[in-house]
């Protein structure tokens, strides 16, 4: 495929201008920053104007002012607005997905799936706005009735990463707004264009001024948002290092905190497994999305009886993966998101190769038809749990194989990590599945499935260093975005 010709046909002309949204107005007072296509660094995809600290304060103040009226709005009105947002996202799927691929580096089929899920999330929480309920409880005393109701908390600060720049903002924004909170979104500075399109849709849907704000920028903007005393809820998805800093900075503050952080996810493959399914799950779970997923299958734990055969076949398939431009339909893997991320991954690979107890293949920088942040996928074979590659979240197209002597040994290896996000097993044994379900320490278990891929109507989240606070998504997230009030009434 002629990638350059394809881009011309898609209308690659002018970079998308990205501006902050504060109280219904576009604000562009600060310095502008270019974002270049990680598949073709000669192309400027977007130009974002970062928020000042004053802009952040104004955004929070506008959200605070809008909150009482939005909280009192009838549930049907909130539901209709969120449903409209969902419909608009889906109607613009191709436009948003193409920008997402150009700005973040995800292949176009993956980008389309992400945009579709974002639209579905808004529609799901439109329904949840109508289903918010309380309960009536009999008092222990005569003549008294008790009602327990759930009410919105206030202003939510939502800080989102670059690896899912449409769907993660959606799964934070939709419930925050559905349950009556106002929100200030701080997207990653690497994907301001995706956030710009989402903000345009929020405005087009008719959300009242102040209900949704967006401030762009890096860590300084995020820190100002988190530290603002008028912020009642903080929901962050990103690295464990940044999450720990946010938690420390909020010490003593009366604000609710939700953190979704890293993972070092195991995929167990037993001797009785459907090997074709397990191989496909290992490839897609470890290497697709360029391995830039917190649920990626980075540790593949294989029964000793089939380890060598599995390793040989897996390596052959890894060697056949095509790395290239995100818009090229021949590409299985796109680029890493930035040069900084590529250097970080390459440095981690150097460390892993120097400290591995097994053999390593791949992991070298690649040149493509266009200048981009391409890296060859890497596979480590015959490693141990103590190896660097199995202790650190590299967040790139990297996987390791670990030999297990038994199911007990495999589960022990799987649990040997400070993280606990997602864990999977491939086996035909119901007894092995039951043992895995009982003993795994991860927050999400995948049985004969990839460790990646989740549904929006059930909780998402992990244990240990993978997360803190109420799980995201599903109806249960109401526990984070609302608080209970108990009302006693004498008859």
Notes on the structure:
- The strands form seven sheets. This protein has a seven-stranded mixed β-sheet, with helices on both faces. Strands 10-9-8-11-12-24 form a six-stranded mixed β-sheet, sandwiched between helices.
- Helices cover 40% and strands 24% of the residues.
- It has 16 helices and 25 strands.
- It has two domains: 3-261, Aldehyde Dehydrogenase, Chain A, domain 1, CATH 3.40.605; 265-457, Aldehyde Dehydrogenase, Chain A, domain 2 (3-Layer(aba) Sandwich).
- By secondary structure, the protein is an alpha/beta fold.
- Helix 2 (53-72) packs across helix 8.
CATH class of the largest domain: Alpha Beta
Whole-number tally of structural domains:
2
Radius of gyration, whole Å: 23 Å
Strand content: 15-25%
Looking at this protein, list some descriptive labels.
491 residues; alpha/beta; Aldehyde Dehydrogenase, Chain A, domain 2; 2 domains; 25 strands; disordered N terminus
Summarize the structure.
It contains 16 helices and 25 strands.
Helix/strand layout:
Layout: H1 3-9, E1 16-18, E2 20-22, E3 25-27, E4 32-37, E5 40-49, H2 53-72, H3 75-91, H4 93-104, H5 108-131, E6 135-138, E7 144-152, E8 155-159, H6 167-178, E9 182-186, H7 192-205, E10 212-214, H8 219-227, E11 233-237, H9 240-249, E12 256-260, E13 265-269, H10 275-287, E14 297-303, H11 307-319, H12 339-355, E15 359-362, E16 365-366, E17 374-375, E18 378-383, H13 388-391, E19 398-404, H14 407-414, E20 419-420, E21 422-426, H15 430-439, E22 444-447, E23 463-464, E24 467-468, H16 478-481, E25 482-490
Parallel strand pairs: 1-5, 8-9, 8-11, 9-10, 11-12, 13-14, 13-21, 14-19, 18-19, 21-22
Antiparallel strand pairs: 2-3, 4-5, 6-7, 7-25, 12-24, 15-18, 16-17, 20-23
């Amino acid at each position: 495929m002629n990638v350059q010709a394809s881009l011309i046909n898609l209308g690659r002309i002018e970079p998308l201008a990205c501006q902050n949204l504060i109280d219904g107005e576009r604000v562009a007072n600060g310095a502008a920053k270019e974002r270049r296509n990680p598949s073709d660094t000669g192309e400027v995809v977007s130009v974002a104007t970062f928020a000042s600290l004053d802009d952040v304060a104004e955004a929070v103040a506008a959200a605070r002012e809008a909150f009482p009226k939005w909280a009192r709005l009838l549930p049907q009105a909130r539901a209709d607005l969120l449903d409209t947002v969902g419909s608009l996202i889906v109607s613009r799927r191709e436009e948003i997905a193409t920008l997402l691929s150009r700005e973040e580096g995800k292949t176009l089929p993956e980008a389309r799936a992400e945009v579709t899920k974002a639209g579905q999330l808004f529609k799901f929480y439109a329904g949840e706005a109508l289903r918010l309920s309380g309960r009536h409880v009999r008092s222990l005393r005569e003549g008294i009735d008790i009602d327990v109701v759930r009410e919105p908390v206030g202003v939510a600060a939502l800080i989102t990463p670059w690896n899912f720049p449409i769907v993660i903002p959606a799964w934070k924004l939709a419930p925050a707004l559905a349950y009556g909170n106002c929100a200030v979104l701080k997207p990653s500075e690497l994907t301001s264009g995706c956030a710009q399109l989402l903000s345009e849709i929020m405005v087009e849907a008719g959300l009242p001024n102040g209900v949704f704000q967006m401030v762009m920028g890096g860590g300084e903007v995020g820190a100002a948002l988190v530290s603002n005393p008028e912020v009642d809820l903080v929901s962050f998805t990103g690295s464990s290092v940044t999450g720990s800093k946010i938690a420390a900075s909020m010490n003593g503050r009366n604000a609710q905190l939700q953190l979704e952080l890293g993972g070092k996810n195991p995929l167990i493959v037993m001797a009785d497994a459907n090997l074709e399914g397990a191989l496909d799950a290992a490839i897609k779970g470890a290497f697709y999305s360029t391995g830039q997923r917190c649920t990626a299958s980075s540790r593949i734990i294989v029964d000793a009886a089939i380890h060598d055969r599995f390793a040989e076949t897996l390596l052959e398939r890894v060697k056949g993966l095509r790395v290239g431009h995100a818009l090229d339909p021949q590409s299985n893997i796109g680029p890493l998101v930035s040069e900084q991320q590529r250097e970080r991954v390459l440095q981690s690979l150097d460390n892993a190769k120097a400290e591995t107890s097994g053999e390593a293949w791949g992991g070298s920088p690649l040149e493509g038809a266009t200048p981009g942040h391409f890296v060859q996928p890497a596979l480590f074979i015959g490693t141990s749990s103590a190896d660097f590659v199995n202790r650190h979240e590299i967040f790139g197209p990297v996987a390791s194989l670990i030999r297990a002597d038994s199911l007990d040994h495999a589960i022990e290896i799987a649990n040997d990590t400070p993280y606990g996000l997602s864990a999977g097993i491939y086996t035909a044994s119901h007894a092995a599945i039951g043992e895995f379900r009982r003993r795994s320490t991860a927050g999400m278990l995948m049985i004969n499935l990839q460790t990646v891929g989740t549904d929006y109507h059930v909780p998402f989240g992990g244990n240990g260093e993978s997360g803190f606070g109420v799980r995201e998504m599903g109806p249960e997230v109401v526990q984070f975005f609302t608080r209970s009030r108990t009302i006693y009434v004498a008859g």
